[in-house]
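Q: Make up one entry.
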Amino acid sequence: MKYLLFLLSLTTVLLVGCSSNSVVDYPLYTQQVAKTMSGQEVNNPGNTINSEVPDLSKIPQYMAPGHLFSMSHSSDSKLTGKFRADFNGVLQLPYNVNVDVSNKTFAEVKETVLNGYRKFFQKGVESVNFTLTSKDFWVEVRGLVKKPGRYLVRPSETLDLVIDAAGGVQGDISVDYFTASLKQSTYEYQVLLNRYFESNETVDKIRWLGGDSVFITKLDSLSGASKEIPFVTMIGGVTKAGKVLYQKDASLYYYIEKSGGLVQGLGYEECYVFRNTKEGLKRINFAFDRPETIPVLFPNDTVYMNSKVQTAGDTWLQRLSQMAGIISTAALLIIAL
């Protein structure tokens, strides 16, 4: 009989524990709203995530791949024409005079050009007229675009216009997530195109240097997230399960709307947030029909919306059934002893 009482007590603890929170102190969304209104801020790891786009505005205005130059000489028609620096920054001129224009000022490039022609002139090399015509940039666009290749880009053109020149993204950016990996000189960084197209915050930060490369890829909606590209994963009772781009201060309702809304017959009581912490994976239980229990969502959280309808009576019947099964098993064990 003592064994039976022990098993009953253990069963009760386990069943009650199944409905408790694994994370005791977690910020609630109602607290976040209240603190925001009072000028304070909830401690949310998402607040530390900034754009990885480097600030290139302070780089000196050097000559670059794609720049177009004009040259002429009154006594030699071969020296008359327009010449563009190639993707590697090499300016190929008549009489096999090649000049690397990268990281040089115009004055330095002109001096190098004139020095290259001095051997062809006993005097009067200064009569070679050399000017800068336009400051276009070569940008190579590859990956999931319809027309990959190298394109001449004006200084004012933004990333979306460059991608449009390559035929646009090959896929539906309203459904899937796409990234652009950029290499510019010694800088390498990644831009999430969905966020870029929805916001103007990073538009002015991308500055072309010439010889840049842009590689477009698609993120698997069920692949792992990272700090650089944070997501909230929605599973269970939503129309379109998968990852939703994390938005600072956004509520659960925002992520539900981005996931196509709730399915019919949602079980409101047992909904969970699974969160990786320093102590390991934690579970937060909340009730969707009780807004005061809904937590603040952090980057890389997984939200499970219970898609099974269960009333309180159904839950207790299920637990009683579980208890009855355990009691029956315990009784058989006791009889066997």
User: Anything to note?
Assistant: Residues 2-49+230-312 form a domain with the Outer membrane lipoprotein wza fold like fold (CATH 3.10.560.10). The two ends are 12 Å apart (CA to CA). The longest strand covers residues 177-184. Confidence is low (pLDDT under 50) at residues 2-20, 221-227.
